[in-house]
Amino acid sequence: MLVEAVRGDITTQDVDVVVNAANSSLLGGGGVDGAIHAAAGPELLAACRELRRTTLPDGLPVGDAVATPGFRLPARWVVHTVGPNRHAGQTDPDLLASCFSRPLELMRELGASTVAFPAVSAGVYGWAVEEVAEVAVRAVRGHGQAPGVALVRFVLFSPQALGAFRAALDAR
């Protein structure tokens, strides 16, 4: 399994799965969530509304993940995960780690082999990007050689985030 960090736009990644740093409502938002919804088109919002109407009436819990089609994205699927919000007192690194391990579990169910992750919970959710990078790399590598997973790519928007993820990859 190749694990790498690149600077770029997660909505343009040619991978099987793009991970969305969603909010529990699944109905779109700002940052990565807004960009993925905009790029995927209105069908993504309709699919998320259907999830809320049927299987997730109370929303997606923090640390969990759910898949939808990718619609207009190059990725075949979007795996939505809800990161912990440090500003709301959600400071458990295990919840954050789950935002990286649960999508890998869903990938196996989907038959996907490549994935692009953002820096879930960094930024507006108050987690330092360095801590997110350490937790993310540990969670992904803790999955070992996940059967069928060939590529895990962390796609970062800023040079600071890229540096933090590269440092975390180099440290392990």
From TrEMBL:
UniProt xrefs under InterPro entries: Macro_dom, Macro_dom-like
Pfam families, alphabetized: Macro
Matches recorded under Gene3D superfamilies: Leucine Aminopeptidase, subunit E, domain 1
Domain Macro: 1-172
Domain of life where this protein originates: Bacteria
PANTHER family: GANGLIOSIDE INDUCED DIFFERENTIATION ASSOCIATED PROTEIN 2-RELATED, MACRO DOMAIN-CONTAINING PROTEIN
Protein name: O-acetyl-ADP-ribose deacetylase
